[in-house]
Design goal:
Layout (H helix, E strand, L loop, with lengths): L5 E5 L6 E5 L9 H19 L5 E6 L3 H9 L1 H25 L9 E8 L5 E10 L1 E5 L5 E5 L5 H22 L3
Antiparallel strand pairs: 1-2, 3-5, 4-5, 6-7
Length: about 180
């Protein structure tokens, strides 16, 4: 809605004008409002949620048939997200244990994205994971043990675990 402010862009070559609203003040899809919310959420995560440690982004894309189901079945979407998150947290714990860090704990933040680049229906998960584990020291303090970058084989194995567990979930729910 232009009544709430706008910017005018003009092509220097052809002179074509375009008006872009600063805010729509509505409930529909607005690039200005969406961009502002994305920036605010990122700042909140950096300033108040994520610890000052390395963070790795993980993205789980799903088969086409499952994307549609997750878009309409929110309980199933949450269940698939829980399977994925447990597998990812277990991946970090297992790697930490192999490096001599017992009882390590890590954390994640996930955003469920419902569309692709062409605004097509494409449910997938964007996850920020603390890239390592926190370990309790004998004096009670916490120390952070950073993880090394995962190998292609480790990522493939993690994906295999997620796939197996999601298929098991679907069979249990009889939605295959």
């Amino acid at each position: 809605m232009l009544a709430h402010g706008f910017a005018r862009f003009r092509c220097g070559a052809c002179g074509t004008d375009r008006l872009v609203a600063f805010s729509c003040k509505g409930r529909g899809f607005c690039p200005s409002c969406g961009g502002r919310r994305m920036t605010e959420r990122a700042a909140h995560l950096i300033d108040h949620v994520l610890p000052r440690t390395p963070v790795r982004q993980w993205v789980l894309s799903l088969p086409f048939e499952l994307r549609y189901r997750l878009a309409w079945d929110h309980k199933l979407c949450r269940a698939v997200l829980a399977v994925y998150t447990r597998a990812l947290l277990g991946f970090y714990r297992k790697r930490a244990k192999a490096s001599g860090h017992r009882d390590g704990r890590t954390g994640t933040v996930t955003v469920i994205q419902r569309f692709g680049g062409a605004l097509n229906l494409n449910v997938h998960f964007h996850t920020l994971a603390v890239d390592g584990v926190f370990v309790r020291e004998p004096d009670g303090s916490l120390s952070f043990a950073a993880a090394k970058a995962p190998t292609d084989d480790e990522v493939e194995a993690l994906l295999g675990v997620i796939r197996k567990r999601v298929l098991r979930l679907l069979v249990r729910r009889d939605t295959r």
